Amino acid sequence: MTMTKPMHETLQKIVENAPGSKGAILMGFDGITVDQYVRPEFVDAMDIESMAMEFSFRFLELRDAAKSLEMGAISDITLKAEYGTVVVRVLSTEYFVAIILGDGTLMGKSRWLLRSNANALNSDLVNG
């Protein structure tokens, strides 16, 4: 599902400016996809929507744990695994954006791309 063209273009820009990234997705914490962009060479190789949906429920648990520990609101989540990394930027209490990275990708640049494009994505959510 593509909500707005600017939102899709923003996700595409994030992915294309993060060398080694596979795709990005904007999703609600309820597991419903708002929009996504996957590099053409990975479209058949990965199901970014199912992956993000599965993680969205775990992110809710992390958010609740941070709240119960009086740590404040979570802004970023990074999950590094054997075959890749997921970097998440929380946009609001309802939405997050995530980028899926291959092995050896620069996490810092990806995190910066998510953070620097968060306002544009939030604006598209409000105005879309």
Q: Can you describe this structure in just a few lines?
A:
With 128 residues, the chain is an alpha+beta fold. It has 3 helices and 5 strands. The chain has one domain: 2-Layer Sandwich (Beta-Lactamase), CATH 3.30.450.
Would you mind describing this structure in some detail?
By secondary structure, the chain is α+β, with helices and mostly antiparallel strands. Helix content is 42%, strand content 27%. The protein contains 3 helices and 5 strands. The chain has helices at 5-16, 48-68, 107-127, and strands spanning 21-28, 33-38, 76-81, 84-90, 95-101. Strands 2-1-5-4-3 form a 5-stranded antiparallel beta sheet, with helices on both faces. Helix 1 runs antiparallel to helix 3 (107-127). The longest helix is centred in the middle third of the chain and has 21 residues, at 48-68. The mean pLDDT is 90.
Within CATH, the superfamily carries the name Dynein light chain 2a, cytoplasmic
Number of helices: 3
Number of strands: 5
Structural category is alpha+beta
pLDDT averaged residue by residue: 90
Beta-strand proportion? 25-35%
In the sheet with the most strands, the strands line up as 2-1-5-4-3
* Unreliable residue stretches: none
For the record, what CATH class applies? Answer: Alpha Beta
